[in-house]
Amino acid sequence: MQTFDLEAQGLRQLNATLHAQADDTNQTAWEVVNPRGSHAIAVGLDAPIEVNVKGSTGYYCGGMNKQATINVHGSVGPGVAENMMSGMVVIEGDASQYAGATGHGGTLVIKGNASSRCGISMKGIDIIVHGNIGHMSAFMAQSGNLVVCGDAGEALGDSLYEAKLFVRGSVKSLGADCIEKEMRPEHTEILRDLLERGGCDAKPEEFKRYGSARQLYNFNIDNAY
Amino acid sequence: MKDDNSHGAPRTVPIQSATFTNPINAEIRRAAATGIYDIRGGGAKRKLPHFDDLLFLGASISRYPLEGYREKCETSVTLGTRFASKPIKLDIPVTIAGMSFGALSGPAKEALGRGATLAGTSTTTGDGGMTEEERGHSNKLVYQYLPSRYGMNPDDLRRCDAIEVVVGQGAKPGGGGMLLGQKISDRVAEMRNLPKGIDQRSACRHPDWTGPDDLEIKILELREITGWEKPIYIKVGGARPYFDTTLAVKAGADVVVLDGMQGGTAATQDVFIENVGQPILACIREAVRALEDMGMHREVQLIVSGGIRTGADVAKCMAMGADAVAIGTAALIALGDNDPKWEAEYNALGTTAGAYDDWHEGQDPAGITTQNPELMARFDPIEGGRRLNNYLKVMTLEAQTIARACGKNHLHNLEPEDLCALTLEAAAMAKIPLAGTDWYPGKPGTSY
Q1: Domain of A137: which CATH number?
Q2: ipTM of the complex
Q3: pTM as predicted
């Protein structure tokens, strides 16, 4: 286990050190102490390493992650794991706005609650939230899965494309073109796997599925000529 | 006349309304028939105060000219000197603006890269990500970081030469974009993670930051991911150039890109293009003033765009304080867009060469703004690159000619004092004295 004191050694040194880890590095386990809400911790990683952040972080923790597993033993600011490509990011506490925004792949697990716009423009990432999510979540979500074990706020899935949304609790309101959809066996299987990966104590049968009505996919033109 | 006196009394001749003109009436009828606003490509077509309304004074007794062909007149520019450890050095100050793969074909993007590289300048990606054709043929490639984040990935961030955070563009400040389903080929759909054939919206604002304080942190993240090597540009539409430039610098930009309303777009509502934003002429001096007020002029470089066509336009931008310019529409025309040789086909589409702007429909006879394989095959990227290089070379020679005539041995040495304005409007917007006077409207110390 390599320990990095962020307060003493600084952000640039942290990310440069983590970026220097190659695919075959022996230094696969890292612990970051004294994060003190710093922004851009462990961003742009591209190696199969595990990073444990001991405390809460600011914006964009784990941004654009590839391959790495990042565990945050605290809460995170806006944009955690934004544009993640692969790997896994696990948050023990709560997440602020835009969690998993535009993520292309990998898995983001939030064990607390997530604020507004969780999964905005997601493009293939799987996001699993143990608690509740805020308003306008999954706005323009393109693909991937969003699992919410608690409740969802207003305008869930507004202007949704092909992402699948699973919510166990209540949904305050659905956004434009987002509708409740039948939970077929294949969806139950997808959800069962996601719940297992996310360490959730919940059953797929307790969830409802939401998706796009696909009514906004093309301009509706009344061209009679 | 018979009509005037058909019943024995004089009659009023028919008068067309200056308000309800034939084009306006035709648009009302089109709207009534289709139920949708007009979407088109390009920038503002209305007549605007522009660089044509400025003139260079040239040398006289108080200014000593340089020999037109023999004496050195430098054109190079270095972009990204504020924070980036690897700033970009360009041979000429004319760059290629961001245009997306999707809006343009792969071969067209390749041609832009080829031409820019031959000319010693940079080209820029666009919405939809980076293609191999473009990276492979572009010596200097700027990677746009857009609200949609279509195709955005850290590998391409690391292999670009600069990053351009797009906040807005001149054709549609405050607006997003739309790539209609007919241009969504398998390849475009895959790069954007969306199903084939559906209209793809490009959001009007970024998904994970709001405001300049957030932007500063976003830039920190981008720099950390790329090891503080890449220059970071911030592109804004010509809306509030003084404040937008100030805030971009405050947020940590190495370079500010300022795009006036004549700047093109792949597809936006016509009403938006023609009615939102300011002409580039009104924006440049305000952006420069912002940089000067912060002591950042030349430390943060300014690239301006929106209707730049000739070396004279380039020289005028430089004289007003820009470090470089960007061209988009002009580059497409150099490649062959709107060429009269396709007139019969333009006519078949209900338009004419020079007016064709339905780039979003994917039926471009020139094979540039399309994903149709048959049309794309008409376009030769090697020939396109040659043509673009020639055009860039001519623009540079023209700008040098003017600079030498003004006694300047570098394009950056051109200054506002080298210019005069032909109209009151241009004088007021550009803060350049009206020809024959030492005054412009709003000049400090005057009461007008």
Answers
A1: 2.160.20.60
A2: 0.96
A3: 0.95
